[in-house]
Structure formats: C-alpha cells, structure tokens
C-alpha cells in the first residue's frame, strides 16, 4: 500500500501578487510621470514663444507708454506683435490669461507711437525747454518703476499661467494614475484575495478529499486484511474440519471394529457354539453395527465431497461384471421379498468402459438397494443402455411405494427422504451422495415416480471407451506404456 | 459385509504374525480369529514394543496399526524398512483410516498391503495370504548371494 499522506495546503502567499502589482503601479506612475514632465516640458516649449512674444509686446507697450514714442523699428515690433497675437490666439489659454489687455491693433499701435514720441521727446529734449513735456527726472523714475511693475506683473501672470498649466496637467495625470492605482488597489484588495481565497478553499477541499480518500483506502486495506484473516480462518476451519473428519472416522470405526469383530468371532464359532437365539442376537448386533458404519461412511463421503476433497480415479472396468456384482449384493433381500430382479444390458454397450468404478458401484448399489428396500411386491429392473454417442445410462425401475411429487424436488437433499424411508432404515444421505457423485462425473440423474406405482431413476454418465482412455493417456504421458 | 456363516472348514495356517495395535479390543478380536485358523500371534500395544520384539522376532508378516500415540505406525514402518534384516517381512497397514485415498497413500509409502478396519473375519486370512505371496515373489527362492545378506544384523 502506498504511504502517501496528503500535506495540508500551505496558505497561498499573496506577496508575489502584491509585489507585482506594486511594480506595475510604480511603473505606471513613473511612466505617467515621464509623460507629465514631458507635457510640462512641451508646455514650456510651446508657451515659450508666446511668453517671449507677450513679453515683447508688454515691454514695447511699456516703452511706448514711457517714452510716448514709437519704437525705432516699428515694423519689427508690429511683426512681433502680430506673431504674438497669432501665437496667443493659437493657444487659447493665452487669450484668457491676457484677456482684455488686447485692443484693436491699430489703436494700440497709435497709442504706442504717441507714447513713444512723448517719451523720446522727454528724454532728448533740453531740460527746461518748452518742447520738453516733462523733463522731470522723477517722471522718468516713475516711468521706470511702472515698467518694472508691468514686468513683474507679467512675470506673475506668466507664473500663474505656467502654474495653472502644470497643475492642470499634473492633476490630469494624478487623476489618471490615481484611477489606475485605484483599479489596481481594487484588484489587489478585493479581486485577488477573493481568488486566492477561492483557490485556498479549493486546495483545502482537495486536501480534505485526499484525506478522505486515504481514509477510505485505509478502511479498504483494513477490510481486505479482515477478509484475508477471515479467509485464513475459514481455510483453517476447513482444514480442521477435514482433520476432524479423519479423526472422527478413526474414532468411530475403532469401537465399531471391536463390536463387529467380537460378534463375528462368536458367529464364526471361534469361541464355541452359539444357541439359535444367541446367534440371532449376534447377527442383529452385526447388522446394526454395519448400518452405523454405513452411516459414518456416508457422512464422511458427503463431507469430503462438500469440502472438495473427493477425487475420482478413472480406470477401465468391466460394465457387466460391475452390474452383476451390484445385482448379487441385493439378490438376497430381493429373493426374500419374492421380487422379480432383472438385469438387462444393451449389447451395443462396450464391454469395458472407463470411470471410477468404485464410485459408480456405490451409486448403483445405493439406487438398487433403495429400489429393493422400498418395493414390497413386483419387480426391480436394472437396465443398461447406450444413451447417446457420448453417454450411457442405467435405469433402475421398481414397482415400489413411489415418491410423492412434492418430495421429488428435495429427495436429493441431505437427510430428506420419504417418511417411509426412515422406517426402512435409510440414512437419508444416499441420494445426496449419489447426485453429487454423478454430477462430479459429468453425468446426470433423472427421477420419475408416482405414488403407489413405483420409481424410476436414470443415471446418465459420459461414455469413455478403453481406447479413448488409452489415447488420452498417450497424449499426456507417452512413457506410461514402456514400464 | 459378509453373510454370517460358521467357519466350517477352517484353513490351517502356520504364520507367525506380529500384531501391533494400541486398542486391546482389536488385538483380542484379530488374535482370536488368526489363532483360530492356526497362526501364532505375537502382540505389541505400542510402536516401541513392536520394534523391541522385532529385534529378535522374524514374523511371517507384521500387521501394523497406523494410528498409535507417540510412535505411530508410520514411524514404526520407517524403522523396519531402514533395517535390511527385516526387508523380507511384509508389513501390512491395518487401519480405520478408511477414507478415500488412504489406501493409495499407504501403498505409495511402501507398505506391502493395506487392510481396512473393520476386518472381515472370513476374508482376512485370504487378504494376508495374498500379501505374503506378493512379497515372497519379490525375493526369488534361490538364495543367491547378491549382497551381504548372508551376515544378518545381530
């Protein structure tokens, strides 16, 4: 038997799964981060032009405001302004940021030109001259301050714009990454543990069923062992039975030997002459002792057949001799009862057949002695004939008491006989042995009977001729003829 | 079994038989019968006693019960057959082991004959005679010195 014991399932470690998810999230964040920074960089790149242009415009504006003069290279400024305008327009955000500070271009330019002129005049005119609208250095200082303020304001605006840009992009990325993380988290916290739990449950169930199977296996092994023990016990019991039978056989025969022996030596006149009554009683002793002996023999025979220890010893035998022997054994009683006792043998039967003659004789004696025993008047006929090409039969017909139909089924069972049989001294085992022997020989037994009319038993046995038997012997043991 | 007749013409036999049986009834009955026909019957009620008697006794035949306590008939038989001085003596198994196959087993073991109990008082003499004759046939009468048989074991 295999000694595999199932191992209880180890709890599934969710560490690898968690680790992989963390790696995934990390990867996502990093990749998203790269994208974020990329976008921010791109934003810088894109916004840079705008910023510069806006800066230029603002600077120009302030310059014009301060000087009241148009720039020296007005076309260039205009160009820059236009580019800035387009850039800002292209980039919608810029519009909203700078808002209403954009005015129609020509008006703006006019203002700028005017402011420039004023500013240049103020810078270039002779102080205290009439042409100088304002030669006051404080006015210039205030103009410079205003310029600085404008620049600061621009920078603040630019910062705000960048900040807004960045934060909106970052927020977007965070939302995106967050949702990815959230999904991962949900997967990690709910889906995977649920699956892990399911797997663990399955594993536990598998383990339990393995344990159960092992238990069943153990139970089977145990049952097997018990069966083997029971079989050994049965075999031992059978051996003991056989031994018991052998012992019983000996133990029962020994005192019977003495009884029969003592009677016989007296009947034989070995110890002096007997009176007629003494002789009669001694004869009764012998008859009863021999009946008891027959009973013992039959019980032992039956037990032997049932224990499967009966073996047939097939040999050639003379059929006519055997049947005549059976007839002569029963002739005395038949004659005493004044019965017609006939033996008919079909000429077509071979003179010599093969079989266990002692057992066949036992069958015939049993049936014929029954027939004689149960027939008070009329006849007992033994008829041997060819049954088929492969079988011969002996039919024993009497005109005796007959067997009631309800007993015909059980008449071959042990200790079953017609009630009359008990009074007539039967053992109740004869027919059981007869049938078992016939079946052992591969033959068959048939019974037909009618109460008051008589009984007919037919024994059908396989026909083996001497030649067939010799041939079969040569086939199996070719050396047999040499010795 | 036999019809009861009296021994009107008892055969005279001059055998010397060693009868071995632990059951005294058997000894009495068989001894009575064989003596009636003229045989000299020596008895032993155990295997040991039988072997003891066989040290000096050379009977015509040994009638040996198989089932005896301590030293069984089988053991006695083996001892007898191991002794060349006793090889010409027929040893007959006399037993109530009359179940089928017992006879074959006994003969296969080398016994010279087998007589099933209960004995038939009127045929036992014939049965024994046959066995004695068969044994004698194994040893031709002219005493040819084929081996050192001329010096029997003391």
TL;DR of this structure?
Chain A has 483 residues and is α+β, with helices and mostly antiparallel strands. Chain A has twelve helices and seven strands.
Describe this structure in words.
The complex is a heterodimer of chains A (483) and B (154). In chain A, 67% of the residues lie in helices and 10% in strands. With 483 residues, chain A is α+β, with helices and mostly antiparallel strands. In chain A, helix 5 (137-267) packs antiparallel against helix 6, helix 7 packs parallel to helix 8 and helix 8 (357-373) packs antiparallel against helix 11. The radius of gyration of chain A is 66 Å and the shape is rod-shaped. Chain B has 5 helices and 5 strands, in the order βαβαβαβαβα. In chain B, strands 2-1-3-4-5 form a 5-stranded parallel sheet, sandwiched between helices. Chain B is globular.
What are the defining features of this structure?
heterodimer; A: alpha+beta; 5-stranded mixed beta sheet; two-stranded antiparallel sheet; 12 helices; B: 154 residues; alpha/beta; 5-stranded parallel beta sheet; 16% strand
Question: What are the SSEs and their pairings?
Answer:
The complex is a heterodimer of chains A (483) and B (154).
Chain A: H1 15-67, H2 74-90, H3 92-98, H4 105-124, H5 137-267, H6 276-306, E1 315-318, H7 319-336, E2 340-345, E3 352-355, H8 357-373, E4 379-388, E5 391-398, H9 405-408, H10 419-423, H11 430-440, E6 444-450, E7 454-462, H12 466-476
Parallel strand pairs in A: 2-4
Antiparallel strand pairs in A: 1-3, 4-5, 5-7, 6-7
Chain B: E1 16-20, H1 24-36, E2 40-44, H2 47-53, E3 61-65, H3 73-81, E4 91-95, H4 102-108, E5 113-116, H5 124-138
Parallel strand pairs in B: 1-2, 1-3, 3-4, 4-5
């Amino acid at each position: 038997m295999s000694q595999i014991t199932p191992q209880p399932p180890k709890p599934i470690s969710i560490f690898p799964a968690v680790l992989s998810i963390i790696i995934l999230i990390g990867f996502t964040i990093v990749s998203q981060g790269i994208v974020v920074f990329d976008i921010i960089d791109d934003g810088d790149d894109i916004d840079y032009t705008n910023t510069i242009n806006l800066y230029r415009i603002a600077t120009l504006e302030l310059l014009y405001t301060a000087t009241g003069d148009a720039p020296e290279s007005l076309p260039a400024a205009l160009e820059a302004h236009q580019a800035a305008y387009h850039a800002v327009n292209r980039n919608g955000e810029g519009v909203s940021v700078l808002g209403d500070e954009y005015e129609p271009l020509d008006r703006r330019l006019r203002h700028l030109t005017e402011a420039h002129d004023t500013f240049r005049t103020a810078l270039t005119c002779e102080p205290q001259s009439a042409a100088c609208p304002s030669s006051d250095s404080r006015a210039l200082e205030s103009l410079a301050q205003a310029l600085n303020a404008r620049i600061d304001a621009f920078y603040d605006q630019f910062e705000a714009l960048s900040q807004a840009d960045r934060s909106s992009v970052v927020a977007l990325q965070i939302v995106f990454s967050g949702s990815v993380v959230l999904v991962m988290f949900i997967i990690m916290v709910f889906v995977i543990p649920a699956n892990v739990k399911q797997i663990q449950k399955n594993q536990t169930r598998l383990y339990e069923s393995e344990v159960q199977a092992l238990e069943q296996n153990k139970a089977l092994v145990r049952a097997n062992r018990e069966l083997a023990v029971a079989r050994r016990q049965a075999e031992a019991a059978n051996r003991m039975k056989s031994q018991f039978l052998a012992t019983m056989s000996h133990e029962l025969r020994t005192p019977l030997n003495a009884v029969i022996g003592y009677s016989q030596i007296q009947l034989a006149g070995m110890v002096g002459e007997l009176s007629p009554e003494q002789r009669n009683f001694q004869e009764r002793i012998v008859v009863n002792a021999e009946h008891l002996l027959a009973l013992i023999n039959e019980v032992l025979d039956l037990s032997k057949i049932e224990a499967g220890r009966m073996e047939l010893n097939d040999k050639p035998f003379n059929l006519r001799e055997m049947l005549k022997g059976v007839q002569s054994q029963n002739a005395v009683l038949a004659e005493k009862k004044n019965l017609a006792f006939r033996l008919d043998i079909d000429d077509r039967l071979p003179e010599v057949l093969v079989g266990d003659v002692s057992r066949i004789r036992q069958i015939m004696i049993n049936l014929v002695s029954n027939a004689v025993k149960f027939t008070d008047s009329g006849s007992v006929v033994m008829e041997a004939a060819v049954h088929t090409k492969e079988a011969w039969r002996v039919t024993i017909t009497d005109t005796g008491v007959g067997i009631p139909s309800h007993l015909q089924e059980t008449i071959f069972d042990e200790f079953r006989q017609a009630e009359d049989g008990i009074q007539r001294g039967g053992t109740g085992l004869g027919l059981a042995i007869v049938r078992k022997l016939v079946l052992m020989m591969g033959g068959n037994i048939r019974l037909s009977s009618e109460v008051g009319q008589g009984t007919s038993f037919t024994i059908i046995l396989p026909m083996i001729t001497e030649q067939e038997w010799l041939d079969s012997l040569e086939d199996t043991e070719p050396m047999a003829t040499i010795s | 079994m036999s019809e009861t007749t009296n021994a009107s013409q008892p055969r005279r036999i001059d055998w010397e038989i060693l009868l071995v049986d632990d059951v005294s009834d058997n000894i009495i009955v068989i001894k009575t019968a064989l003596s009636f026909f003229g045989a000299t019957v020596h008895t032993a009620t155990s295997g040991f006693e039988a072997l003891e008697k066989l040290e000096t006794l050379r009977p015509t035949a040994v009638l040996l019960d198989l089932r005896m306590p301590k030293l069984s008939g089988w053991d006695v038989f083996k001892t007898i057959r191991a002794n060349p001085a006793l090889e010409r003596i027929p040893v007959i198994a006399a037993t109530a082991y009359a179940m089928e196959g017992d006879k074959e087993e006994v003969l296969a073991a080398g016994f010279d004959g087998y007589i099933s109990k209960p004995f038939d008082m009127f045929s036992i003499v014939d049965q024994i005679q046959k066995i004695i004759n068969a044994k004698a046939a194994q040893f031709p009468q002219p005493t040819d010195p084929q081996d050192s048989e001329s010096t029997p074991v003391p």
